[in-house]
Amino acid sequence: MSLRFARFLSTTPTLRANYGFIGLGQMGQHMARHIYAKMEPSDKLYVFDTVPEATASFVDTVTQQKPEAKSQLHTLDAIPKFVTDVDAQLDFIVSMVPEGKHVKGVVSELVDAYKKNPQTGSTTFLDSSTIDIPTSVEVHQMVKKELPEFDFIDTPVSGGVAGARKGTLSFMLSREDHKDVAPDLVKLLNMMGTNIFPCGKNHGAGLAAKLSNNYLLAVTNLAVADSFQLAKSFGLNLQHYAKLVSVSTGKSWASVDNCPIPGVYPENNLPADVGYKGGFITKLTKKDLVLATDCANQYDRALFLGPTARKWYLKACEREDLGSRDLGVLYEWLGELEEKNGEYVDKKTSESFKV
Ligand code: NAD
């Protein structure tokens, strides 16, 4: 019986675990920090980022918070060292890197290293990055072909940097049901987040859920911006209108939890109250919308609102001040546009364009 299968059958997680984490950026540094903070005294955590300063800053932060676990944390300076420079074979290696090409590169290096240094147990690679489904499927097939005992699971997240910081992320993964998620995996995901959503049995189901949801977010956010600009041109009191929407059929995350009208929920310190700084930036919304619409094409699914929304987000992101601020800023931007004979004029830049 393989180690992985034995663990899968077991109802309690193994007592000792070795974790690897790759990509200590805005999201990854917090996810890895929660693993470090919650790991058992017998566990170990190995981390790597291509930017040495990211690793150094991570080590500084976490060892100040929990100095007693310092000896359980190890930094590595190259991917193959997750195989060659560890005390024992790692149970899980999580990647949280920008794009599909980075995931493919990281996992290919790991697979090569494991092939050169054969092990008796199995390692599960978890990829929490938001990437395109075909690349993730290709990486999964490569892992299964080269190292049949190993697994590669797409475990994308929602909750943003705030959720990563608080440890309240939701994980979406390609498993049919909760009973199909191994106890060790549940334990690891619960260290970093609070919700686990099995999305389907085929590899890529987690990403499919992530992209479908973020497609909905991108389109809804644009509709919310449009609706609030319409209400403004009708001369409505926008703060009162926003409160009405919050208990009406137009209610959504974009219209309420991330309301783009300043001053409606001052107690929540929303991006709209601080000039749309922070939050989930427009560039990342555009990235996910582009991934969703590209994947829809690859899966022969015609999207009705996607192509238009995509053009608006691509256009918005040409302006750095819009791309680098919270997606609620699209409300402000739409108010800066004037329509003349089918062309739009951006009053701030004087540029005219068609969508
Ligand atoms: P980021 O750019 O802040 O961090 C990525 C980190 O990966 C960087 O530190 C970079 O140096 C490192 N890296 C890049 N290539 C690497 C490699 N080959 N090996 C090791 N490290 C490497 O990005 P982020 O905001 O943390 O996002 C990471 C992923 O999570 C992206 O796919 C993003 O779409 C997704 N995501 C982000 C958010 C968010 O709100 N920021 C929310 C959900 C999902």
TrEMBL record:
Residue intervals of the 3-hydroxyisobutyrate dehydrogenase-like NAD-binding domain: 204-328
EC number: 1.1.1.31
The protein's annotated pathway: Amino-acid degradation; L-valine degradation
6-phosphogluconate dehydrogenase NADP-binding domain segment(s): 19-199
Single GO term (MF): 3-hydroxyisobutyrate dehydrogenase activity
First-tier enzyme category under EC: oxidoreductase
GO cellular component: mitochondrion
Keywords: Branched-chain amino acid catabolism, NAD, Oxidoreductase
Catalytic reaction equation(s): 3-hydroxy-2-methylpropanoate + NAD(+) = 2-methyl-3-oxopropanoate + NADH + H(+)
Family classification: Belongs to the HIBADH-related family. 3-hydroxyisobutyrate dehydrogenase subfamily.
Protein name, as recorded: 3-hydroxyisobutyrate dehydrogenase
